[in-house]
Specification:
By secondary structure, the protein is of the alpha/beta class. It has one domain: Resolvase, N-terminal catalytic domain (Rossmann fold). It has six helices and seven strands, in the order E-E-E-H-E-H-E-H-H-E-E-H-H. The strands form two sheets. Strands 4-3-5-6-7 form a five-stranded mixed β-sheet, with helices on both faces. It has a two-stranded antiparallel sheet with strand order 1-2. The radius of gyration is 23 Å and the shape is elongated. The termini are far apart.
Length: about 190
């Protein structure tokens, strides 16, 4: 085939069923012969006072060419840095995270994200934690990912329940131990 005319390959990527914010758009695709697989990193902290340095250092040491970051809760996948990291990944690339919990905490969201990555032929690489050196290249790895995502979600739910129970107990104990409220009139201030 003569190469007189430029070829434009359009790849339509699969939308994430539950989150339209992660739905990739139509984008030109480079042929596999023209590019190498990229390592795209993603780092997240929950609050502005937390520091990304540890994650960024690990992602850079692994060889991530680009790292996207967020300062937001992991409860939702609606995060600009995550959306951009996924959008930037092409078939054959690796999405690299420091720990699975940095990617997200919601079981359904993690499973949906894994399905999108698998359909787009993007490998998920986890550097530390329970899934250290984990890659989602085969079916067995994806099953283990689903199990670990469920365990992670369970741990978060249990921690949340314990926190609520502890706060309720503290409130009850504080009410029982506190002296009765006295008004300014009763104290003789007025």
């Amino acid at each position: 085939m003569p190469r007189d005319h430029a070829r434009h390959i359009i790849r339509m990527t699969a939308p994430l069923a539950t989150d339209p914010m992660l739905m990739p758009s139509w984008e030109p695709a480079a042929s596999d012969a023209d590019r190498h697989a990229a390592r795209i990193g993603y780092a997240r902290v929950s609050t502005p006072s937390q520091n990304l340095d540890l994650q960024l250092k690990a992602l850079n040491a692994y060889g991530c060419e680009i790292v996207h970051t967020d300062r937001a809760s992991g409860a939702s996948l609606r995060r600009a840095g995550l959306r951009e990291a996924i959008r930037q990944c092409r078939s054959g690339d690796e999405l690299v995270v420091w720990r699975l919990d940095r990617l997200g905490r919601d079981l359904r969201g993690l499973l949906d994200l894994d399905a999108v990555l698998a359909e787009r032929h993007i490998t998920l690489k986890v550097l530390t934690g329970q899934l250290a050196s984990f890659e989602t290249r085969c079916t067995e790895s994806r099953v283990i990912f689903a199990i670990m995502a469920a365990i992670s979600s369970y741990e978060i739910d249990v921690t949340s329940e314990r926190t609520r129970a502890g706060l309720d107990a503290a409130r009850t104990q504080a009410m029982a131990l506190s002296p009765p409220f006295l008004s300014y009139c009763q104290l003789g201030v007025v």
